[in-house]
Amino acid sequence: MFQSLSEKLENAFKKFKNKGKLTEADVKAGMREIKLALLEADVNFKVVRDFIKIVSERAVGTEVLESLLPAQQIVKIVNEELTNLMGGTQSKLQIASKPPTVVMMVGLQGAGKTTHAGKIAGLYKKQGKKPLLVACDIYRPAAIKQLQIVGEKLDIPVFTMGDQVSPVKIAEEGVKYAISKGYDMVFVDTAGRLHIDEELMNELRNIKAKVEPTEILLTVDAMIGQDAVNVAETFNELLDITGVVLTKLDGDTRGGAALSVRHVTGKPIKFVGTGEKLDTIEPFYPDRMASRILGMGDVLSLIEKAEQAYDEKKAAELEKKLRESTFTLDDYLEQFAQIKNMGSLDQLMGMMPGVKPGALKDAKIDEKAIARTEAIIKSMTKKEREKPDILNASRKKRIAAGSGTTVEEVNKLIRQFEQTTKLMKQFSNPKGLAKFGRNKMKIPF
Q1: The model scores a pTM over 0.90
Q2: In three state form, how does the secondary structure of the chain look?
């Protein structure tokens, strides 16, 4: 996410380093580099022009020119103005005072509208809401089936009337059904086209008039760059959207859409899709995104991901097991599963301050290795999982045969388990933690 833009901005900031004082000429040269970086990232030209003007005006002020650390002041100003450019603060989904909250999903075909209708519904289901998905795309082959599959995976019901009823009628009846059955959120999945046309817009306007949605969310593919801004502008003019869902931010995107949409439409980005799985959806925080772009990390999002993966009760149980030396191979396997649930290493490390986006582009949690580990552990008896020190040569040979692995792999797993247990035990003990700092023990995975 934004790897190229981050690198180019970092190079631009080098223009200001190693200078005790900055002149207006220094600022102008640096701003030229920042301007080129933004344009190459496919940011809208008018957006770049306005952004550079504001940053330049602040950069030649007394707060920078008379500062002892002018380079840091420039980075601070760029960070603040990037945040402002993307909306300043998080814009939450509006919840209707009288249920149900009706969310109308619109956008071009292929942007991920159907999937993200499910993703957002799933996000609110976790928060205690009772969502319903309504299938109004009767034109795209298998669109209804796709929404039903998404709903099934998330355990969210889908309202459908087939593909012979008008989308306006389906939307209207879907909302009536939600009211009668006590659903407090309705996500209306509308039809998209490969391009914007009058027929599509008339249909969307008619659906809007019938169901009076609380929110109209435009799904935009971040990969199409400048075109995403044009799409957003057109949909906003015709439907008066309330927000944007930016998808495919995990791909090779240059960042232009994220930095342009709010400025051009005046409507906030409310959610970002960061992967193919149904839980890869995040609320959009302009300040956190600006920090990621500038390589300053996003610790708050990292903490939130950890909190979602680990619950307090299990954490307390784990700590107790480590203290009492009752940590088993079953517990070990569960830790792998929880780390896997947090996402790819590239995404997680991109949230760490000082780590460049894409620095671990090819570093991924090896799902095959986790599968082999799971197979080895599940090939053991309950007693062997609880007391791996009883594993002799014949037992290991049996486990290797049962899991489709080798004795060497079984031995490697046992060594990793012992080292990890020792390391985790030190972390759970303040005295051991101090010793860990002195010994600089290596993490075995």
Answers
A1: no
A2: CCHHHHHHHHHHHCCCCCCCCCCHHHHHHHHHHHHHHHHHCCCCHHHHHHHHHHHHHHHCCHHHHCCCCHHHHHHHHHHHHHHHHCCCCCCCCCCCCCCCEEEEEEECCCCCHHHHHHHHHHHHHHCCCCEEEEECCCCCCCHHHHHHHHHHHHCCCEECCCCCCCHHHHHHHHHHHHHHHCCCEEEEECCCCCCCCHHHHHHHHHHHHHHCCCEEEEEEEHHHCHHHHHHHHHHHHHHCCCEEEEECCCCCCCCHHHHHHHHHHCCCEEEEECCCCCCCEEECCHHHHHHHHCCCCCHHHHHHHHHHHCCHHHHHHHHHHHHCCCCCHHHHHHHHHHHHHCCCHHHHHHCCCCCCCCCCCCCCCCHHHHHHHHHHHHCCCHHHHHCHHHCCHHHHHHHHHHHCCCHHHHHHHHHHHHHHHHHHHHHCCHHHHHHHHHHCCCCCC
pLDDT at 64 > cutoff 90: no
Q: Are strands 185-189 and 243-247 parallel, antiparallel or unpaired?
A: unpaired
pLDDT of residue 154: 92
- Give CA 26 to chain center in angstroms: 37
Measured from the Cβ of residue 420, the count of other Cβ atoms closer than 10 Å reads 16
Asked if pLDDT for residue 270 goes beyond 50, the answer is yes
Decide which of 256 and 50 is more confident: 50
Contacts of 333 (CB under 8 A, 6+ apart): 373, 374, 377
Which tokens is 189 given?
């999945």
Name the amino acid, one letter, at 331. D
Give the C-alpha separation, 50 to 364, whole Å. Answer: 39
Q: What is the pLDDT of residue 177?
A: 94
Alpha carbons within 13 A on the beta-carbon side of 105: 31
Question: 315-324, 353-362, 381-390: which has the minimum mean pLDDT?
Answer: 353-362
Contact partners, residue 274, CB within 8 Å, separation at least 6: 1, 249, 250, 280, 281, 282, 343, 347
Q: Is the dihedral angle over the CA atoms 317, 323, 327, 333 positive or is it negative? A: positive
Phi and psi for 387 in degrees, rounded to 5? -130, 75
Q: Give the Å distances, CA to CA, from 70 to 19, 84, 200.
A: 8, 21, 52
Distance CA 140, CA 30 (A): 49
Q: Is the dihedral of CA 145, 151, 155, 157 positive or negative?
A: negative
Mean pLDDT for the stretch of residues 19-47: 81
